[in-house]
urease (freshwater metagenome), 563 residues
Amino acid sequence: MNSQELADSQQDIAIHGARKGDFVRLGDTQLVVRVEADDRELGNEVQIGFGKNMRDGIGMRSVPSSESCDVVITNVLIIDAIQGIRVSSIGIRGGRISAIGRAGNPDTMDNVDVIIGSGSIVIPGEGLIATAGGIDTHVHAMSPRVCDAALASGVTTIIAQEFGPFWGVGVSSKWALEQAHNMYGAWPLNVGILGRAAGSTRAPLEEALAGGVCGFKIHEDTGAHPRTIDTTLTFADEFDVAVALHTDGLNEMLSVADTIDVVDGRAVHAFHVEGCGGGHSPDVLTMAGRENILASSTNPTLAYGVNAADEHVAMIISAHGMNPELPSDVQMARNRVRNATMAAENRLHDMGVIPVTSSDALGMGRVDDTWRKTFAMASMFADHAILDGSVAPDDVAINNDRVLMHVAKITTNPALVHGLSHEIGSIQIGLMADIVLWPYSTFASKPNMIIKNGLPAWGVVGDPGATVSNAQPLLIGPQFGAFGVTAEDLGVHFTNSNSGISLSRRRSVPVKNTRTVRSSDMIRHGILGEIHVDHTGNVVTFNGQHITSDPQNAATLTRTFLL
């Protein structure tokens, strides 16, 4: 490519965004994707603005929104675990995705999938990446500001375990749950609440079910013992709700093998399966790679770095009510921190064994780090791609499969695990239009706009006293969709089919298919095998082969974009 061709290409990208065959580097990572498809007609792309073609009789059809779209996102690079990597336009009607493909006016253009009407709201997507909204399945909402931070990071759905500065790990009081449902309506955020499974009888579970929980949390701090595990799983099988399991870190009543036996082939979501966040020491990681155990990680151990071990001892002591002055408490905390299992966990993610990432917000992790850490981890295993023109296009190291795998970890797969996939988790026709728009240069770190149920709810806002909307200083904050009763309308509350809760405005949606989901159902994952951790916690094998990864000295998607 000579200098003139390069200049023409750069100009075209500046106007129209990436095209089929183009390479796009994601933020400052090593991850480079190549655009697989482009639904536009070359030279006839729709664009809005002065002197552009999105006007009546050209790119816009004179019809109402009932015959077109309420909202159209044009010419955006979709990165979706199911759709793949393609440039397209997204049509939205009534808060749901109604069309995906070529946008325009079918009276004047060929093969139009997304009809732009005279009244359609248009969001230009050139230079932006569209993903499904992030789903964080492990949130300790100890502060209401967690909801702000989640939205600002590109998360549109949380599975919460509390709603205030108290010790919770699940809530079962019907009265308290009724208050929680009303509180969460203040944010344009989908919310499900886990009930506490801490007893050996069904009565507390029945109360929580009537209170509208979407699943249950078993936690070692209240006893992850055989009777509780079996009672909860039996109850969940009857009522089709998910069970999240934080196993017995002290091995007081059960070893990891005992826990697997008690689970007895039933579906269970194994939280922070590496073990630093809690669970059988030193070998809870052996729960991953099994068909019925749906394993996830929390973000502090992703991407595995040189300071990971030091950070986690203090975190464990603080989060779990331990006393740093008691040597026994300090030793128990240190027993949970193992470099070898952290290193292996990251490798297992890249192999497709662990299908979900989450935060464990305010319980060990950071709610605004899940997108960032997931893709920093992906970058660890990517080959350096040279894009200066010195390497032939066919020889450039591309990471489409790796990127799509990691998108699945925070969108499609958590939706499957918790029974949400009939509503969210992918950019697909019929699903809620929960879409995050990212600039190529800040992908997974700083979103441009968070679209909730079809409307901008959070995103980049400029100086309100300026003459244009994008004047500095630019901040990520609430958009109009976050105000008034609209915030309540845009989110849904995930509950269960036996819920006794009635909300005034917010839609309640029962979860479904949580008891039949298996690891082999996980999109772009499903690799099964036997994991072994030696008794010291220093050696991890997968199907007999030693697995590890090198700790990172510096993380991507951090200091380049964040003060």
The domain at 135-410+528-546 is CATH 3.20.20.140 (TIM Barrel).
